[in-house]
Amino acid sequence: MSDPDAATMTHEEIGAWWATSVTRVAPGEIDLRGYAVQDVIGRLGFVEVVWLLLRGERPDPARARMLEAALVASVDHGPQAPSIAAARMAATCGLGLNSAVATGVNLLGDVHGGAGQQCVALLHRMADLRAAGGGAEAVAEAVVAEYRERGAYVPGFGHRFHPRDPRRDPLLAMVREAVEDGVVDPGPLESALALEKALAARRTRPVPMNIDGATAVVYACLGFDAELARGLFVLSRSVGILAHAWEESRGGARIKGPLPRQVLAAYTGPPTRALGPDA
Quick one: pLDDT band at residue 1, thresholds 50, 70, 90? Predict the structure, then answer.
């Protein structure tokens, strides 16, 4: 059946085009998942509202605290992070603040910014394998062997800059506390620690969880889908991107590239040559 002609559509049919359970808006009225916005303002924190909009109901205080900790932990990693560097460069090129922030956010893809989502997906997969009868350590060893055979990195582990990511321990300590209090299921934490142990086997140096792995444990314990883990990381890192773009825009520099002007990129092509008379 073809779509109805717009001229004959009822108000209900037109309104159903963008039907949503997230927000109800009417003249003088805004409801967020059924709560009047004037009741929410000043009574719910930002993280509680994030949870409310994504999940449909308010979180309990323990889960809200865990989500807030994960979001705080991921806000920034300095101008050496490509997303931050890109935003700072954009700010020196005359772009508005919103465009500079968008430049940085748009660099958060599968390689830079996607490991958290990939790690949550892996923890969900390990949960299925464990439910089928595998122990945490046996499943982790099989997963690590699989990644090594493919020559791939296990997402959420190791860091190119930090021997041990300083954000790992406080996040995992909070998860352990929540597990002990019966707030969340221990499965994701057990699987992640088993992966860490399997990765360290037969190595002289351990491969501890990085921020992506630690926040993946939090998001998996809280029941977030893997794709939302990346969305939450983008939400968090946008704060750092905004701060760096704003700082750079206040500095007065113009058209800053990836290298200082005194440094030229190494050239690996042929030496300077004549075009020749036959050109």
Answer: very low
